[in-house]
Amino acid sequence: MSIDYSEKIPNNVSLSDNRRLKRALEEWQPHFLDWWRELGPEGFQHHDVYLRTATSVDAQGWATFGYVKMPDYRWGIFLAEHGGDRRIGFGEHRGEPAWQEIPGEHRGTLRRLIVTQGDTEPASVEQQRHLGRTCPSLYDLRNLLQVNVEEGRHLWAMVYLLHAYFGRDGREEAEALLARRSGSADNPRILGAFNERTPDWLSFFMFTHFTDRDGKYQLASLAESGFDPLARTCRFMLTEEAHHLFVGEFGVGRVVARTCELMKQHNTDRVSEYGGIDLAIIQKYINFHYSVSLDLFGSELSTNAANYYSAGLKGRFKEPAHDDDHRLTESTRGVMKPEGELILEKEEPALLALNEALREEYIFDSERGVERWNKIIRNAGIDYALKLPHRAFRRAIGNFKEVNVTPNGEIVSAAKWQRREAEWLPTAAEREFVGSLMKPVTRPGQFASWIAPPPRGINHQPIDFEYVRLKE
Ligand SMILES: [Fe+2]
Ligand SMILES: [Fe+2]
């Protein structure tokens, strides 16, 4: 399905056939651009950036690469193609045709799901807006800005659904998505992790590795939705999300690689005086970002999640691959919870434990990333392994929010936990140190002292390609 770029709002949803919707979105567009100029990336708005833009929605060659000034980026509405007569794959309506319109009884719930997803998109742009000023290279700057414009597009994806299917309420929600602010005291973003600061590039890479990965799992389960326009929207968003995860995993990997290089060169595990970041500090950043991201999946047991599933609104990760009845009314699964000083696994109804099931998929996936970083360390001949903390570590939501758990999964007293906190989480001094390394490097092909160059450039371009033209 090709994308109509002759329109003011590029789209593949035949927007020109629906005058009312087209007008409403064209009215929202300048509000979006105002938000982008005010809260989008700080600086670089007038520079040419080597960005990719979607040209079609099929897996082969959906992107074109070229220099674009960010405010001219063609944010638009792209839905994955219809899968013929798609059927609902789970819940009480399993086997029925997927809905092209919203069933009245699920209107409020779907709106909340869409708004919650939509809110994370501009939030992350706000969180990352100042990072360009301290980019470790033009290559990384370009990747940051690519992630940012695509998060902006993800906002468009959700706003389209709100405008197209939720009438006046939807239009109000679309405005509210531009009004909330990450970290604001009066009008914060909806989810906790999206109000945290992203103070430095190590945090950015951790965020794109761990927090964007939560996004992948949320989008994947919404991509199973019985509400077909939502499913198709999320399916296309996932193709963009894959790049954000790449930026995170390879970003952290390059920091690790550089640290290992300095460790060998100077025969020390304290590389800070050589402009690197110790593996021990990297581990603390992992502990921080992973635990914040685990909370995004919600409580282990959730009647909301059960209702979303039974109603056919939100499925499981890769729903068709599950070898069961896709209703889950009879099955159970093990769920961890604290019992005194122990963490035990208890059988719970599978339907109630869907958040935990999704979190589990996420944990496996996150582990694979850590494994790849450890391979870099091993290949450097260094005896050290990064690891994910226990899933109960530092949780603010769910079964473990009242207990104090160490990264090894041991329940300890609050006093003991606080005494040891500095061993597990970045201290103010360490954050300050990492911050002190954040000096912009903007000469093509040059990289900051704390990060290795990537193995290859973007879209077959050389590593020293001028990914952002800083001269106006
Ligand atoms: Fe996104
Ligand atoms: Fe993302």
Beta-strand residue fraction:
5-15%
| CATH class category label | Mainly Alpha
Q: What's the number of extended β-strand segments? A: 7
SSE string, helices as H and strands as E = HEEHHHHHHHEEHEEHHE
Blueprint (SSEs and pairs):
Layout: H1 19-39, E1 48-54, E2 63-69, H2 107-128, H3 138-165, H4 167-179, H5 201-222, H6 228-266, H7 279-295, H8 303-310, E3 332-339, E4 342-349, H9 354-379, E5 404-405, E6 411-412, H10 414-424, H11 428-437, E7 468-469
Describe this structure in words.
This protein is mainly α and 472 residues long. The two termini are 36 Å apart. It has a single domain (15-469), classed as Ribonucleotide Reductase, subunit A. Strands 2-1-7 form a 3-stranded antiparallel sheet. The protein has a two-stranded antiparallel ribbon with strand order 3-4. Strands 5-6 form a two-stranded antiparallel sheet. 46% of the residues lie in helices and 8% in strands. A hairpin with a 2-residue loop joins strand 3 (332-339) and strand 4 (342-349). One fe (ii) ion (FE2) binds at residues 121, 151, 154, 215, 241.
Question: What keywords describe this structure?
Answer:
two-stranded antiparallel ribbon, three-stranded antiparallel β-sheet, mainly alpha, binds fe (ii) ion, Ribonucleotide Reductase, subunit A, 11 helices, 472 residues
In brief, what are we looking at here?
The chain contains eleven helices and seven strands. The chain has helices at 19-39, 107-128, 138-165, 167-179, 201-222, 228-266, 279-295, 303-310, 354-379, 414-424, 428-437, and strands at 48-54, 63-69, 332-339, 342-349, 404-405, 411-412, 468-469. A hairpin with a 5-residue loop joins strand 5 and strand 6.
